[in-house]
Task: inverse folding
């Protein structure tokens, strides 16, 4: 069910982390641990503000990583208090300096504000405020909101009312949290086009950019809707619309533990998340697919399946490759025409979409702005919308008619790994579900596919154990400047995914090609020593693709390429032509890509490690791309 109506379309948004707390604990501890769990979102400065037990507002903020702030606070602790807000900032307006970091203070230092997003009309608001004598100490758009809220609080002496009075003056995207020393025990938040989730505790309540901010303390949460304001005290949560109408937000239970978002002894989150790929697939399947191949997904009941005559997937990056891969199976199993589009392309053309079109968004975070805007566009056009998402309480599911959660567990590393596999499985399930409803899948095919899918976690585990060998390969290639990836049919999206991982993790030029396209241009890139990964279909595959891909290998080998083939165990045809073969266990054509992608994930990670790069937070990237 769609819970939220469309909001205005922001052009930009930022990817900051936000935490708010009211309770009985030391807020400094709660806030800093929340920020640590939101680190993956990407940031360049951090800060915290607390209403102290003695009734004064104290704050500290620093450019740089959280450790810089933590060290300062360890050396000069803030006065303790059990109400506070904290922020990690990803710079948009103004450089990442101490002054531009949040919180921003107003009302003579008695009010503190943190902000995620961009206030698009800040320039004109700031001019008006400066003209009326207000002063500013940062270059940010956010400080304008702080100053406005300070003035509004002086007028109303009510923090919630101040927020109501100010949000209507702001244009753009924002999550705002404020505290005031004259209102101890209260945090007020507001959101428009930027995420904010409420954590419900006993004698304490929380606010966060996502549930990771407070999952260590509570598993009960409320999803704040678009254009809503929330006021928390330790014993109460009040939500209203920007217009002041009371709202009862839907409650949900967070189905993973805080430990799931810890590294747990792994060298990086990415290493941990690759090790979780088998489990992620098992979790996506759990309880949804009988041995006979019957799919039970009550979450899809709100869709009118009888109307669907076409499916369009919208997604970005890795999620788009998962959709591409899943689409091959879905079209075959359901008989429904399926296309896949990048969300940002879909939104800016005039697609022919109506009630018969099911628009399926795929998004791990459920907050990707490009995909969110495309979902809103699909809703406007009258399509049925389904979200395939991993993150409870996220915005895209709230704005879709139905949601199929992947249940892959939190993915913290910026480079998406286990989400790719679980998203693909979710699309496969959807394909079987639609095919079943239309009577398109035979009982034999459904049962065989169910068996193949249930075998997958074990087979993926085998692939995860290729890690040491892949690490050796990556070690030899640390100086490589370019790597190509070739695949056909379902191997093609895997080639694209392998190349994306290498670009973002190891900063190496990498391209994925459909192998059939080679002679139409890309073969000109092959020169002696060029490394090419090739996804080789099984020789048992009834199509002739195996032979065609082996011919492609011969063509590039003849021109000096160094070939790393990912091929079925015992495939003798590739051996004479490959410099290295990574063997995958025998699997059916639609399962193979979920095996061959695993060594590519490991390769990207190990090459980044061999180059001494930051695996979990590659340069210029953030996990949740809330920038359009
Ligand atoms: O959260 P989403 O699944 O919507 O994210 C989509 C892409 O931004 C994401 O997959 C991105 O391409 C990853 N960094 C790739 O590893």
Result:
């Amino acid at each position: 069910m769609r819970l939220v109506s469309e909001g205005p379309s922001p052009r930009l948004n930022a990817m900051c982390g936000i935490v708010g707390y009211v309770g009985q604990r030391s807020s400094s501890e709660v806030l800093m641990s929340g920020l640590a769990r939101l680190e993956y979102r990407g940031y360049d400065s951090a800060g915290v503000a607390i209403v102290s037990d003695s009734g004064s507002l104290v704050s500290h903020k620093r450019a740089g990583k959280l450790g810089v702030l933590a060290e300062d606070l360890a050396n000069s602790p803030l006065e303790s208090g059990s109400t506070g807000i904290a922020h990690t900032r990803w710079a948009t307006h103004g450089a990442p300096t101490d002054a531009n970091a949040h919180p921003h203070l107003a009302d003579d230092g008695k009010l503190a504000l943190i902000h995620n997003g961009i206030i698009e009309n800040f320039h004109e608001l700031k001019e008006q405020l400066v003209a009326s004598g207000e002063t500013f100490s940062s270059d940010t758009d956010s400080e304008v909101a702080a100053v406005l809220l300070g003035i509004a609080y002086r007028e109303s002496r009510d923090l919630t009312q101040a927020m109501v009075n100010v949000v209507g003056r702001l244009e753009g995207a924002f999550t705002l949290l404020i505290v005031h020393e004259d209102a101890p025990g209260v945090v007020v938040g507001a959101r428009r086009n930027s995420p904010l989730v409420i954590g419900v505790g006993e004698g304490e309540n929380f606010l966060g950019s996502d549930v990771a901010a407070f999952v260590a303390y509570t598993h009960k949460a409320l999803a704040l809707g678009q254009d809503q304001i929330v006021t928390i005290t330790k014993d109460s949560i009040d939500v209203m619309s920007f217009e002041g109408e009371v709202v009862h937000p839907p409650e949900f239970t967070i189905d993973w533990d805080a430990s799931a978002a810890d590294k747990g002894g792994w060298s990086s989150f990415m290493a941990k998340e690759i090790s979780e790929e088998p489990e992620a697939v098992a979790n996506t399947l759990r309880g949804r697919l009988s041995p006979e191949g019957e799919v039970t997904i009550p979450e899809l009941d709100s869709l009118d399946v009888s109307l669907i005559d076409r499916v369009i997937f919208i997604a970005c990056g890795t999620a788009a490759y998962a959709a591409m891969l899943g689409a091959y199976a879905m079209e075959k199993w359901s008989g429904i025409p399926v296309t896949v589009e990048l969300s940002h392309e879909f939104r800016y053309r005039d697609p022919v979409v109506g009630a018969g079109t099911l628009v399926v968004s795929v998004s791990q975070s459920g907050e990707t702005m490009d995909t969110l805007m495309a979902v809103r566009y699909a809703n406007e056009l009258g399509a049925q919308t389904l979200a395939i998402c991993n993150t409870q309480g996220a915005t895209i599911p709230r704005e879709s008619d139905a949601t199929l959660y992947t249940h892959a567990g939190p993915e913290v590393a910026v480079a998406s790994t286990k989400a790719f596999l679980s998203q693909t499985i979710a699309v496969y399930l959807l394909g079987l579900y639609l095919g079943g409803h239309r009577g398109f899948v035979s009982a034999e095919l459904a049962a065989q596919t169910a068996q193949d899918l249930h075998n997958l976690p074990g087979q993926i585990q085998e692939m995860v154990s290729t890690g040491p060998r892949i690490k050796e390969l990556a070690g030899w290639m640390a100086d490589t400047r370019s790597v190509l990836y070739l695949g056909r049919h379902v191997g093609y999206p895997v080639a694209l995914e392998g190349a994306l991982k290498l670009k973002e993790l190891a900063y190496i030029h990498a391209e994925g090609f459909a192998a059939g396209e080679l002679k139409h241009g890309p073969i000109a890139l092959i020169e002696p020593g060029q490394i090419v990964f090739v996804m080789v279909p099984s020789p048992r595959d009834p199509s002739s693709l195996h032979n065609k891909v082996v011919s492609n290998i011969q063509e590039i080998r003849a021109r000096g390429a160094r070939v790393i083939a990912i091929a079925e165990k015992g495939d003798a045809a590739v051996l004479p032509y490959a410099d290295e073969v990574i063997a995958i266990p025998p699997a059916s054509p639609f399962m193979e890509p979920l095996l061959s992608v695993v060594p590519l994930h490991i390769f990207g990670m190990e090459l980044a490690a061999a180059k001494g790069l930051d695996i979990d937070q590659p340069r210029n990237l953030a996990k949740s791309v809330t920038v359009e």
Confidence is low (pLDDT under 50) at residues 4-14. The CA atoms of residues 162 and 558 lie 72 Å apart. The chain has three domains: 17-261, 263-455, 466-619.
